[in-house]
Design goal:
It contains ten helices and eleven strands. It has 282 residues and is of the alpha+beta class. It starts with a helix and ends with a helix.
């Protein structure tokens, strides 16, 4: 072995062998072990420690998940956002109608107060049926009662099942919200011209604050209707906007639950059945 190679090996041993003795993974290479084999042993030992630590972490803090059957995407059963805890109510996949390929999976989460509200409601216990929500035969009572119940918080988690862009997702959101503005004008929902203008400006704010660049597969977008009827928008761990609009915070959720021009019937059906289970489970 050349003098230079010997010094390299000596430095490597001084740096890494104390770690091997402490971690006790694999034998210390014998004197005279070739440098290439020494390097291989070091890398293997480091990988073994890394794998063991990861496995221990997963076993200690497992994340309970629900898997959407078509996309195979997994969503957490519990969320902890902005000092509140949410439980998964239902989930489903959004698909492009003509091509029938999956775009993203969406999960509906509710805080404890929202869930307790419907579980303790005589009207829900006696009158609710999944068919009512799916067909709108209840004149959207249950959808509105759940979404608009005072003081409750709800979250929609949207997770792409393939790489996409913020522009593409944003267009879908603003399209159904602008259509809802038109419907509410037709139905006389807005009490004044200012109320209509406020709704339009809220949609514009969401559009302006939304990311436009690439959004990778399995990224997470959170839309939360706060207890103060604001819409909080978060991208992974970053808050994008807190829009103070009762109209927007409610209509965003109702867009996913309404029977008219459904965004995802699979999502609506799963949620409709989950409501029934929630009511009767004690």
């Amino acid at each position: 072995m050349s003098a230079r190679a010997h010094l390299t090996l000596l430095g490597f041993k001084q740096r890494f062998f104390p770690f091997f003795r402490q971690a006790r993974v694999g034998p210390v290479p014998a004197k005279g072990t070739p440098l290439s084999l020494t390097l291989a042993l070091a890398l293997a030992a480091t990988a073994a420690v890394s794998t063991a630590n990861t496995a221990h972490s997963d076993a200690t803090h497992p994340e309970a998940v629900a898997v959407e059957p078509e996309s195979k995407a997994a969503l957490p059963s519990k969320l902890h956002l902005n000092n509140n805890s949410f439980s998964l109510v239902g989930l489903g996949v959004r698909q492009v109608t003509m091509l029938n390929f999956s775009v993203y999976v969406v999960g509906l989460y509710a805080d404890a107060k929202a869930i307790a509200g419907i579980k303790g409601s005589p009207q829900w216990i006696k009158g609710y049926s999944p068919e009512a929500l799916m067909t709108g035969s209840d004149n959207a009572f249950y959808m509105k009662d759940f979404v608009r119940r005072p003081g409750t918080e709800l979250t929609l988690l949207i997770q792409p099942v393939r790489a996409t862009t913020g522009t593409h997702l944003r267009q879908g959101f603003t399209r159904f919200l602008n259509a809802r503005v038109v419907k509410d004008i037709k139905d006389g929902v807005f009490e004044s011209e200012q109320a209509k203008k406020d709704a339009e400006e809220a949609v514009g704010t969401l559009e302006a604050k939304f990311p436009v660049g690439p959004i990778p597969k399995n990224a997470r977008l959170y839309f939360t209707k706060t207890a103060n009827n604001e819409l909080r928008v978060q991208y992974n761990d970053r808050e994008l906007a807190l829009i103070k609009s009762e109209w927007l915070s409610q209509r965003f959720f109702e867009g996913y639950l309404a029977h008219e021009k459904p965004i995802s019937d699979k999502f609506r059906k799963n949620v409709a059945l989950a409501f029934e289970k929630l009511i009767h489970d004690q």
